[in-house]
Amino acid sequence: MLHQTSVVVVVFCFLLVASSSYASVQDFCVADLSLPDTPSGFPCKDVKKVSVSDFVYSGLAAAGNTSNIIKAAVTPAFTAQFPGVNGLGISTARLDLAVGGVIPIHTHPGGSELLVVIQGTICAGFISSSANKVYFKTLNKGDVMVFPQGLLHFQINSGKAPALAIVSFSSPVPGLQITDFALFANDLPTEIVAATTFLDVAQIKKLKGVLGGSG
């Protein structure tokens, strides 16, 4: 009986190593955007149809439109825009902040973020889940800051000129949830928002009006 168990374990280990080895020889999995997305990413494009353009993206060259309520723009290079990053655990984006621009407190549930300041001055920080400790700093050109996966964080243009940063993520689809929009840009009843945030009803209705919410 022990001998049979040992044989089963050896065979299982062999199959596991064999499957891992097989997976490692697949150089890439360019996303086939014509097929539905899945929890593990887009299905792979037929390698015969893959070209160099799948591995190149020029969308970050142009500045984003910052004429909006937050005076900021994020230009993503995620799987949907850049199929070559599918399955690689990486992606990037361009962040433009006009004077007074802000990326409100938000979270990326799918990956950690690394920010590199290219131009201007940016005050950035995150809040830990342990005792809600805040880590923030004013960043200048060339400075780099990391924001751990899932933690609330923000970026503010704290200078007197437009700011530019390149951000990278440890996921091809990091996800995004902005706290302000989650609370005030939907139809969650005002009474529930008031009960769960301790804000007064008048302020909540004002914010819902600004951000397009109802209820």
UniProtKB/TrEMBL annotation:
Source domain of life: Eukaryota
Binding-site positions, Mn(2+): 106, 108, 113, 153
Localisation: Secreted, Extracellular space, Apoplast
CDD domains in the cross-refs: cupin_OxOx
GO function term, MF aspect, one: manganese ion binding
Disulfide links within the chain: 29-44
Ligand binding (oxalate): 108, 113
Family to which the UniProt record says this protein belongs: Belongs to the germin family.
Stated name of the protein: Germin-like protein
Protein's organism: Ambrosia artemisiifolia
